[in-house]
Structure formats: structure tokens, C-alpha cells
Design a protein that fits this description.
Helix content: under 10%
Radius of gyration: 19 Å
Number of helices: 1
Strand order of the largest sheet: 5-4-3-6
Length: 104
């Protein structure tokens, strides 16, 4: 199998239902660099966690714009909806980026 060193390879992007954690099983194939010899790797298991469910307990009720470390979401009483869908290679610490303010 060809091994990437100091590189990342995106093989897919999934959207999963809130409160859903699961596993994904995939098969991949390709060719070695500078060779014409193919390779195959079957039954690779990825364990998936939904980041929205991991952060749900730390989102303040007065937060209206939540950054989960990768994407920005609309928040209402600690519940997320309407998130951006940016593919992220690294994650920052989650934080509230905008709070409810009074109109005075």
C-alpha cells in the first residue's frame, strides 16, 4: 500500500444526522507513484463522531453564532442549526463569536 508522509488525502466528505455516531467501511485503490503497479486496500474502518453533538453542552444559551473549531453555526438556546460546510484539516478551540445583546 502507498503511504503518504506529511501529506493528507481527502477521500470523501459525509454529512451525518445530529446525535448520530457511526462507522464507515470503505475500499480504496490506486497506483504507486512513479510506477504502474496498482494497489488495493479493503475494509478500512473509520469511526465517525458528529462534532455538533460533542459541543452541544458547552454552547452558552445567549450565544447566537457558534464556531465549532472549523465551521460557524447559528445557535439558539445552545442548539446548533445552519452551519457552514467547510472541509477542515485542523481544528481550533470552539467558541461563541456573537452573543444576544439588548437593544439599548
Amino acid at each position: 500500500m502507498y503511504e503518504l508522509i506529511n501529506n493528507e488525502c481527502i477521500i470523501g466528505q459525509l454529512t451525518i444526522i445530529n446525535d448520530k455516531s457511526d462507522e464507515m467501511l470503505i475500499n480504496v485503490q490506486g497506483k504507486y507513484l512513479n510506477e504502474n503497479q496498482p494497489w488495493v486496500e479493503n475494509k478500512i474502518v473509520f469511526r465517525l463522531n458528529n462534532t455538533n453533538t460533542l459541543n452541544i453542552d458547552i454552547i452558552p444559551n445567549d450565544c447566537i453564532l457558534w464556531y465549532d473549531g472549523c465551521n460557524t453555526c447559528i445557535a439558539n438556546n445552545g442548539i446548533l442549526s445552519g452551519c457552514t460546510k467547510i472541509m477542515c484539516f485542523t481544528e481550533d478551540p470552539p467558541e461563541c463569536r456573537n452573543y444576544i445583546t439588548s437593544g439599548h
